[in-house]
Amino acid sequence: MDKIAQHLQRMAASESSSRSSAKDRIRAMSVDPSPAYTADEALARLVAGNERFVRGEARFPTVQKELLAALAKGQHPYATVLGCSDSRVPPELIFDAGFGELFIIRVAGNVISPEVMGTLQFAAVHLRTPLFVVLGHEGCGAVGAALAARNGAHEPARISLLLDDILPGLRGLPPELAPDGAMRTAVEANVRWSMHQLLETPEAKTRLREGTVKLVGGIYELESGCVRFLP
Q: What is the mean pLDDT of the chain?
């Protein structure tokens, strides 16, 4: 009976937390279009959410009708995340974020293309999210394919076009690395390559100079569930 009582108490606490969280989100969306969070506050929310996820304490609240009604009027996400399409790396879950909190772009290898760049520009110009995250992950298949292509492997035409977006970022990899080390190094190099391309845009240079946005990179660890943000 004690275990049942404890379980019911946890469920009640979780429901109360979900209601409070939903109210906070509605409140954040009801203000003017200017960002509700600074870039540092947005990053702190991502870190805290990932810590809850790793501890097994993710909220994943039932969506409140009031929240859906508020979201129907518009969106004000606090962060934009460019991540990989890998089914094991869903940003909303690993950052324990709810509806309307993250603006997410997912493409194999978290690469930069004209379509991705246009979507990121939309987030910057119209949504004005203060934080942009390039999120790679361990064991990325697209990065692995790019490493194989460097050694002469061939892929179908459209996959090859995708790999062409990754390969420039791998030019500086030491050739003597063992396979596991090469993969880890390449994943991080690919994240930094995507970040570099974003930082070279006029809009990014202007907003970074103004101090209105922050760009960070991260690596998701498949086994632990942790996101390691790059220095």
A: 87
Q: What's the domain count of the chain? A: 1
Q: Where are the beta strands (DSSP E) in 10-118?
A: 79-83, 102-106
Instruction: Look at 2-16, 87-101, 150-164 and tell me which has the smallest mean pLDDT.
Output: 2-16
Q: Detail the DSSP E strand segments found in the chain.
A: 79-83, 102-106, 131-137, 214-220, 227-229
Q: In what order do the strands lie in the sheet with 79-83?
A: 102-106, 79-83, 131-137, 214-220, 227-229
Residue 102 scores a pLDDT above 50? yes
CB-based contact 190:169 (threshold 8 Å): yes
N-to-C CA span, the chain: 49
Burial (0-12, 13-18, 19+ Cβ within 10 Å), 118: exposed
State the CATH number of the domain containing residue 181.
3.40.1050.10
Residues 6+ apart with CB under 8 A from 57: none
Domain interval for residue 73 = 2-229
Six token digits for residue 120: 């990121």
Q: What is the distance between the alpha carbons of residues 50 and 26, in angstroms, rounded to a whole number?
A: 22
Q: Global pTM?
A: 0.83
The SS3 of residue 189 is helix
Spatial separation of the C-alpha atoms in residues 26 and 11, rounded to whole Å:
22
Q: Which run of H or of E encompasses 138?
A: none
